[in-house]
């Protein structure tokens, strides 16, 4: 079991906004409340509440406001563009890239 977890961890890729076809200037929406937005300012950075932060930090801030005590959060699962999470976008676009191979 441990070897499987180590293998899965080694396979994880660090994604950037370009992998999800998200660009500087794009507005992202928080999945739990689409009235909450952030603007992409650089690859892997957003402007949220007047600060430049990662998706993870912004998602964790919002989750804490909602009462969650989590120590970590996957920002790619909580921020959206065009009706899908950034994680879903990466998966969808990587599937298309594999079809081209």
Description:
- The protein is built from four helices and six strands; from the N terminus they run αββββααββα.
- The protein is an alpha+beta fold and 101 residues long.
- A six-stranded antiparallel beta sheet has the order 4-3-2-1-5-6.
- The N terminus is likely disordered.
Kindly list the characteristics that best describe this protein:
single chain; alpha+beta; 6-stranded antiparallel beta sheet; 4 helices; disordered N terminus
Quick summary:
With 101 residues, this protein is an alpha+beta fold. The chain has four helices and six strands, in the order H-E-E-E-E-H-H-E-E-H. It has one domain.
Low-pLDDT stretches = 1-11
Strand arrangement in the largest pleated sheet: 4-3-2-1-5-6
Report the total helices.
4
- For the termini, the CA-CA separation is 32 Å
Overall helicity: 25-40%
State mean pLDDT (0 to 100 scale). 86
Give the beta-strand count: 6
Number of domains in the coordinates?
Answer: 1
SS content category? alpha+beta
The SSE order reads: HEEEEHHEEH
Shape: globular
Rg, Cα atoms, Å: 15 Å
Strand content: 25-35%
């Amino acid at each position: 079991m441990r070897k499987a977890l180590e293998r899965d961890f080694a396979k994880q890729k660090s994604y950037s906004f370009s992998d999800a076809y998200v660009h500087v200037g794009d507005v992202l929406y928080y999945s739990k409340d689409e009235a909450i937005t952030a603007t992409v300012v650089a690859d892997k950075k957003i402007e949220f509440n007047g600060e430049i932060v990662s998706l993870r930090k912004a998602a964790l801030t919002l989750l804490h406001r909602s009462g969650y005590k989590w120590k970590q959060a996957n920002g790619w699962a909580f921020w959206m563009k065009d009706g899908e999470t950034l994680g879903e976008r990466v998966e969808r676009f990587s599937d298309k890239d594999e079809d081209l191979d």
